[in-house]
Write the structure tokens for this entry.
Amino acid sequence: MAITYQDILPDPNNPIGAAGQNTGTVGPGYKTVSLISSSPIMKTRTNSGRIVARAIAGHSWKIKIGYNPMTRLEFEPIYNFLLNRRGGLKPFYVSLPQYRTPQDSDFASYAAAGTGATIQTTAGAASGATSVMIDGLSTTISNSPEAGDLFTITSTDINHLKTYRITQVETNTTYASDSARPATNERLIHFIPGLQKATAINSTVKFHNPLIRVILSTDVQEYSLNTNNLYSFSLALEEALP
């Protein structure tokens, strides 16, 4: 039987089988999750005290994951999945539980993956843009994405795999005086970082289970085994875009 390989770090929502397929044994849950936003900035202070700042490198996400002590049955699927990535050679995806669904429960149901409404950009946006207008939303203002939600964009560029985080949401009733007023089924979302790729009109904005494309931060993977035959393990990841 033909299979589809699991390319998401195994967790309770993403199982893996003995052949590496995306069905079978569920992965272990996380004990701790740390998400780091890295935007290197060079700052210079002039003699008069004025600050001059500029970005010196692109933005990237860094992730640290810790696990509770695991039995061998729980440990083997996750460790073998990571060994198969050969350190930083083969990228994979990670689903963070705190961002799997939007914060607003009504919006989460409204835009549910596979069954909900399609949320799209209303116009094209240039690379580097830090806000886009989206439509296809409910006319109920409270039914909305919120600051702190993650999203990805599905566009004609298959290499546009960056993950973004919302910092502000403007609505039909709350909007800046110097920007266009969103219609009742639109929202103007501000986010970090700026768009990695230019985005066309009607690109799909995905708020459910936004995946981050990563590699292992180190080529050395180490675990420890205690006297109760329980495995202790943690890992560090960094965003890896094509």
In short: The chain has a mean pLDDT of 92.
